[in-house]
Design brief:
Number of helices: 2
Oligomer: single chain
Distance between the termini: 21 Å
Structural class: alpha+beta
Helix content: 10-25%
Largest sheet: 5 strands, antiparallel
Strand order of the largest sheet: 3-2-1-5-4
Order of helices and strands: EEEHEEEEEH
Shape: globular
Length: 95
Amino acid sequence: DQIAYIHSLQKNTFLRTKEGRDLPLEESLDKLELQLDPAKFIRLNRQLIVQLHSIKELLAYSKSRVKVVLDPPYGDDAIVSSERSAEFKRWLAGG
């Protein structure tokens, strides 16, 4: 419940808590994605797995892509890749 999102930065993986602290992880995002509850977590792109409750706002970005505003803030733009966009929208709708 304390996980806001998990992100990779320069080939390292970090867990960001809801308080905004980054904790280093040994596992890759690919491995973590398989271990997390898919009802609560979704992979947005190659660098980011987010927890449902850390999503603050959604903004139209381009074509089918969506920009996700996170809390705590994520340094780069959190953009749902076009390949994952349809899956992301289904996930948000609860299906």
